[in-house]
Design brief:
Chain lengths: ~110, ~110
Amino acid sequence: MGLAKTEMFTDLQNEIALFAKVFGHPARVAILQHLFKINNCICGDLVNEIGLAQPTISQHLKELKHLGLIKGNVEGTSVCYCIDTVNWTKMKEVMSQFLNQDLNKSECC
Amino acid sequence: MGLAKTEMFTDLQNEIALFAKVFGHPARVAILQHLFKINNCICGDLVNEIGLAQPTISQHLKELKHLGLIKGNVEGTSVCYCIDTVNWTKMKEVMSQFLNQDLNKSECC
DNA sequence: TTTGTTTATTGCAATATTACGATTAATGTA
DNA sequence: TACATTAATCGTAATATTGCAATAAACAAA
């Protein structure tokens, strides 16, 4: 079907999955890493930095923006993207809680 | 296309994306949360616990197993699944490094 | 051996994702 | 105004994912 039955899961489970999904493509990982590295957030360069076509990069940026993880500011003809630190921190807390579940009880077999 | 151009990204970027992808579905998040909670790793119950059909759960378990995040032990007619703590810890380190990048320089616009 | 129980696999339909050419929109500059 | 530059959107093709019915496989017990 290709359609996740989100209504049968908790809000938290769906939230974790949505964040994870956006990290589930190497292009978006690369975009985020570049935004972290280039603090000047010059961003048309992403097309050159990563080897994908401009519409493709634009599409990935849109998804990241939609989740609130990045912000885009128009500066003349170009657009300046950067990490939204507040939302990134919130996301990090959600993901950390999931990743850091207690391992002590696990692994019985 | 639906095909990620993995060859144009670093091994780390692809690794992060692969881990994230498997967390990108709420059913797999729910399965993992249940395995963490039920330390006895009784596992046929996953079909009852989560509301999906048995073949669907089996398919999700296969993906988690393929990435090494869970282990399955045959016990009679049933199979006991549990978290692979060693690989989970390795995954956690990779993901943590990505999530915990320095936010100080970011957000210039 | 037959039967029941549990899990994996197969096959397929429905939907989602990825990528990009072509185009459009927005803005700066000559 | 006309032209150049940059980024977003549209349309579409190729591929991936999700879900499940049907079936097979593995095993235990009678």
